[in-house]
Amino acid sequence: MQRQNKRSAPRRLDPATVTHLTQRAKLRQTLKQWETHLNSLGTHKGYISVRNQVDLEGPPKSFTYINDYKVGDGILLNEVSVGCECTDCLASPVEGCCAGASQHKFAYNELGQVRIRPGLPIYECNKRCRCGPDCSNRVVQRGIRYSLCIFRTDNGRGWGVRTMERIRKNTFVMEYVGEIITTEEAERRGHVYDKEGATYLFDLDYVDDEYTVDAAHYGNISHFVNHSCDPNLQVYNVFIDNLDERLPRIAFFATRGIKAGEELTFDYNMKIDPVDAESTKMDTNFGVMGLPGSPKKRMRVECKCGVATCRKYLF
What we know:
Blueprint: H1 15-41, E1 48-51, E2 64-65, E3 70-71, H2 97-101, E4 122-123, E5 148-152, E6 159-163, E7 172-175, E8 179-182, H3 183-196, E9 200-204, E10 211-214, E11 218-219, E12 226-227, E13 233-239, E14 249-254, E15 265-266, E16 286-288
Parallel strand pairs: 1-5, 2-11, 3-8, 4-13, 12-15
Antiparallel strand pairs: 5-6, 7-14, 8-10, 9-10, 9-16, 13-14
């Protein structure tokens, strides 16, 4: 007579574990839906993924993802009226191409890497130019080219962004996109954001301190990029279809080669060495955690970037 093996009854999970697993499953579903939504909005090459293996925080509330600037009340963007006559802007620029027309240098090499130093402006070809969409002087306007991941950090810095593929030095990564508002409106919102505990105000002070980009409620993936005292992204002012120097586009380029899986960061308190008058226009005044940039009032906030050269405080 054969012995029958008794099958042990499955172990029952305690209610707390069941609740946690259910919450995690719902979170994964919610984040996947958000990920699908983010990628449905853009025509850029890079894919944006979303991961949270740290806590139960879902997509940010009261935040609308956009791929281009939202212009606030009372602000007019004057579109460019002329373009270049080049057929090959890199090899045979006519009168210096669009950069030359503004008395500046051509910004890119044949690989689309920026070759001018931080502090100098980038003038890309615009929609009135004779050249086509594959022109070497159309880089920022093509959008994000790399696959990136919005992820939840495990050291109290909230969300962050990492690259899912290798990025070459001096390569364009993303724009800082948000709502363009006046400095007066930024001052008003700053007081409100102080009470809420978070804000994302970036002063457009290339020539004058008249306008600010607010990415608190409208923005792209740059909304989630964290600060570092040793960043791998550098800010450049870019002009394309609007040549008003008070309203540059803000673009991030890689300061060095960035490995796949590495977090992307920029310095919220970046300063450019004043080698000449042009570079002094590029100081970044960025506000986070309710602390808008200069000349608005700021308090000291502890830095959590963790690099060896950390300044210990954001501002």
